[in-house]
Specification:
With 346 residues, the chain is of the alpha/beta class. The protein is built from 13 helices and 11 strands. 42% of the residues lie in helices and 16% in strands.
Length: 346
């Protein structure tokens, strides 16, 4: 297994931490050091072409240089907003036969990747999606704590939605088989529609717990048993539930209305908040470090999908911009952002 590290800071941290990944589970430390590590740099190109062409089409059509072999199986676990830039650096090493597994928070990443990295369908690798319910948090770079056992849901995506009997590349089948045979992952394979429903369920929960805990600066369990917060949760879920039940790709799927009802989504939120009561959400951790959040791929995704089906998510829109405002304020405090208005206020 090879770790691809795009940032020099990550490479420095890898060396500083003893060139090993440390995972603590139930107080027991497990250290793994048998990894190859590769520092992935931006690939220089020349010619009078646009910046986007330099990082996508020209790289895809150029040969793989010596020392940069083809990548047959790739797992992408970077923050959603970093995905396009990360893949642009290695797009020339991915072929149609390669498998790319996305395991990330939020939704809408693959659409961006198709538009900005693999615009030509015939050049796209085989995509896979994963949804993880394990509780994991970072202690420091390359040192993690496994705080709660869960499962890993996986699916290979067909190249075209209308395919009745899709053909899956051998690399994708190999990666699926390998992960489902790794006991600690508790991985199970699903069909694309079933996986999408699991992904949307997690998205709905994240759209409540992440922004509320980040804005209120509290642990996940602190949003429970507070009447004012409970009312906010129900109002937000009313919009979220309506959007999900109106998605065209879920029309005709059995039990969608019940599965994504306000009451069931609320029970999902409460259950996860109980289970992770002592945890700080990833969005709150982003705020504390002055980092950008994934709000555009969580609440933002739901707002965009709502607009597509004629639903205006007014409360979720307000919540998203409250998060973006605090994100900018925290970034300025940490010196990682300049106090400038973004180009696109929407």
């Amino acid at each position: 297994m090879t770790l691809l590290l795009p940032a020099q800071a990550s490479l420095n941290s890898w060396v500083d931490q003893g060139q090993a990944i440390k995972l603590t589970t139930n107080g027991l430390l497990d250290t793994k050091s048998d990894f190859e590590v590769e520092h992935v740099r931006n690939r220089p190109v020349t010619g009078d072409v646009s910046a986007e062409d330099r990082t996508t089409t020209s790289l895809l059509n150029s040969p793989v240089p010596p020392g940069e072999e083809v990548i047959h199986n790739l797992i992408v676990s970077v923050k959603a907003f970093n995905t396009v830039n990360a893949l642009r650096r290695i797009a020339h090493r991915l072929t149609r036969e390669s498998a790319v597994l996305f395991i990330q928070n939020g939704m809408g990443v693959i659409e961006e990747v198709n538009e900005q990295v693999f615009p030509e369908p015939e050049n796209r690798p085989q995509y896979m999606l994963g949804v993880i319910s394990h509780g994991i948090y970072q202690i420091k770079p390359f040192s993690l704590a496994h705080s709660g056992h869960g499962t890993t849901a996986l699916a290979i995506l067909p190249r075209r939605a209308e395919e009745v009997k899709p053909f899956f590349e051998s690399s994708a089948l190999y990666l699926l088989r390998t992960m489902t045979r790794t006991p600690v992952l508790a991985a199970v394979g699903f069909g694309p529609t079933d996986l999408m429903q699991l992904q949307i369920e997690k998205l709905a929960v994240n759209a409540i717990i992440n922004p509320l805990t980040a804005l209120l600066d509290c642990q996940n369990g602190d949003i429970l048993h507070r009447p004012s917060i409970s009312r906010i949760i129900r109002l937000l879920l009313a919009e979220i539930s309506l959007v999900i039940k109106s998605l065209p790709e879920l029309q005709g799927v059995p039990n969608v209305n019940m599965r994504f009802s306000i009451a069931r989504l609320e029970s999902q939120v409460i259950g996860i908040a109980y289970k992770t009561a002592a945890n700080r959400s990833s969005m709150l951790q982003d705020f504390s470090q002055g980092r950008p959040t994934e709000i555009e791929y969580i609440t933002g995704y739901l707002i965009r999908r709502g607009e597509e089906v004629g639903i205006q998510c007014v409360l979720n829109y307000m919540l998203k911009h409250m998060v973006k405002a605090k994100e900018r304020l925290e970034g300025e405090r940490h010196g990682s952002l300049l106090p400038l208005e973004p180009r696109n206020p929407h």
